[in-house]
Amino acid sequence: MIGIDSAAAFEAALRDLPAADANARAAAEARQAQLTKPAGSLGRLEEIAIFMAGWQRVARPRIERGRAVVFAGNHGVVAQGVSAFPPAVTAQMVANFEAGGAAINALAGSAGLTLRVAPLDLDRPTADFTHAPAMSEAECLHALNAGAAAIAGADLLVLGEMGIGNSTAAAALAAASFGGSGRDWVGPGTGVDSDGVARKASVVDAALAYHRGALDTPFGILRRLGGREIVAIAGAVVAARHARIPVVLDGFIASAAVAPLARTVPGIVDHLIAGHCSAEPGHRRLLDRLRLRPLLSLDMRLGEGSGAAVAVSVIRAALAAHNGMATFAEAGVADA
Fold this sequence. Notes:
With 336 residues, this protein is α/β, with parallel strands linked by helices. The protein has helices at 7-15, 22-34, 44-56, 88-99, 103-110, 137-149, 166-178, 182-185, 194-210, 218-225, 228-242, 252-264, 281-290, 306-324, 328-331; strands at residues 66-72, 114-119, 156-162, 247-249, 272-274.
């Protein structure tokens, strides 16, 4: 996946996706059936353990090199008044991440994850997509490859983002991928009022109208309506699939990065876990369209990968039970 040099190469990588290891899944299922508990009694924890086994290709998966990656980018569409904060906050928050002072620093540490921060040309916002493509083809490819390059060496990947204005871009991506108007997908984001939400909806509608007829491929949708950090998440998702690395998605923006891919290739979500359902109104609808069930629902709306990092603690619990419990034979317990 790293080194994709054209839109056609990206589309080809998206079509040629490896599957989970069926033998490892079967072995994990067999182990679950032998553990000292009624079958299915640990619910989704059992599903998570089997999911991880299939993608790690071992019957007893572990998280030894878990990584959270926060991609950051700036958006030209903020000129339309869609955010409660100025674009300068993106760089300020990146500095906070790097200094260790943000929520994601604390939550990644709590979940046993290393944290990588990847700012992408913060001094060059994307174009205002209401009257131009957000990125050139070269810029979009650069962002895809930046995302792909960030996955190397991980055995579990948490994907998050930072970018003032990116909830508007996410709403546009969701609408372009799954239909509807701006009002179906926008929300308050970082805290705009009802007038601000209406303005965001009209901006999304204007973008969809401007790009009508050119939103027919995943690459085209990402290039025209995305942001560098959103495109990087898409690149990381596809690269992780080729490396068979399971991915935990964060909130609305991270999920919207997958939407153009899933519209064409629904199976792209097979190696993904939705860490949580955020308070952004469109997120639940988007997860339904992606056919992803969130692990958590905590009314979070921060971004940064924060909700996904919290979900990793649940994943670790699932693997602890899977690997640490005794079997009926080991414990000398009758297996009904």
